């Protein structure tokens, strides 16, 4: 019965709640029903889907834009003031292709504070994106990204470093009524 209830709340989340045009209502559901740890000032825009209850922590003032896929079967930790653009896919699970029974595995993903993930980027299982790193649009991130690195491409490769500035002052303060 417990598994059925868990599947039902995930179904509601991914087929009904994601369409509600109120961040406040969606966040209430994510925090209280899905048991995500989402700090104040953070937003999850409409259309985002999840693979599990729990296993998701989002720091303050971070933004997950519309239509992202968050595979939180493994743990995902997103820092403060992170900007995740539209249609980003964050994966934590894969399969052991050499296993006789195609064994499923979960690997944690972390995204450091002040990171920016570009539109339609894909973060693969087990990857850590460092503080203030930038992942270009459409990149497929297969390895750890060091703090302040800018990566792009398939697979993602370092193309430069972001200006080193430990005194970031910006805050992702989105206040949109219908998103």
Summarize the structure.
The chain has 179 residues and is an alpha/beta fold. The chain has helices at 2-15, 23-32; strands at 37-38, 43-44, 49-50, 56-58, 63-64, 69-70, 76-78, 83-84, 89-90, 93-95, 104-106, 109-111, 116-117, 122-123, 128-129, 134-135, 140-141, 149-152, 157-161.
- Per CATH, what is the topology? UDP N-Acetylglucosamine Acyltransferase, domain 1
- Sheet-strand content, in percent, reads 25-35%
Secondary-structure-based class equals alpha/beta
Percent of residues in helices? 10-25%
Instruction: Count every beta strand, where a strand is a DSSP E run of 2 or more residues.
Output: 19
Segments where pLDDT lies below 50 for 5+ residues?
none
Mean pLDDT: 93
Please write the CATH class name: Mainly Beta
Radius of gyration: 16 Å
Alpha carbon gap, first and last residue: 34 Å
Number of helices: 2
- Side-by-side strand order of the widest sheet: 2-5-8-13-16-18-19
Going by CATH, the architecture would be 3 Solenoid
Task: Describe the protein's topology.
Layout (H helix, E strand, L loop, with lengths): L1 H14 L7 H10 L4 E2 L4 E2 L4 E2 L5 E3 L4 E2 L4 E2 L5 E3 L4 E2 L4 E2 L2 E3 L8 E3 L2 E3 L4 E2 L4 E2 L4 E2 L4 E2 L4 E2 L7 E4 L4 E5 L18
Parallel strand pairs: 1-4, 2-5, 3-6, 4-7, 5-8, 6-9, 7-12, 8-13, 9-14, 12-15, 13-16, 14-17, 16-18
Antiparallel strand pairs: 10-11, 18-19
């Amino acid at each position: 019965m417990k598994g059925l209830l868990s599947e039902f709340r995930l179904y509601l989340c991914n087929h009904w709640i994601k369409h509600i045009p109120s961040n406040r209502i969606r966040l209430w559901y994510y925090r209280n029903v899905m048991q995500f740890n989402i700090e104040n000032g953070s937003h999850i825009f409409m259309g985002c889907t999840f693979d599990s209850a729990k296993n998701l922590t989002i720091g303050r003032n971070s933004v997950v834009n519309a239509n992202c896929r968050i595979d939180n079967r493994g743990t995902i930790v997103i820092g403060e003031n992170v900007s995740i653009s539209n249609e980003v896919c964050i994966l934590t699970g894969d399969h052991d292709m050499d296993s006789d029974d195609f064994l499923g595995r979960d690997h944690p993903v972390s995204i450091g504070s002040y990171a920016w993930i570009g539109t339609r980027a894909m973060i693969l299982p087990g990857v850590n994106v460092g503080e203030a790193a930038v992942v270009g649009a459409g990149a497929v991130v297969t390895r750890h990204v060091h703090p302040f690195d800018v990566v792009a491409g398939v697979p993602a490769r370092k193309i430069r470093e972001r200006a080193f500035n430990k005194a970031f002052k910006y805050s992702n303060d989105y206040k949109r009524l219908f998103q």
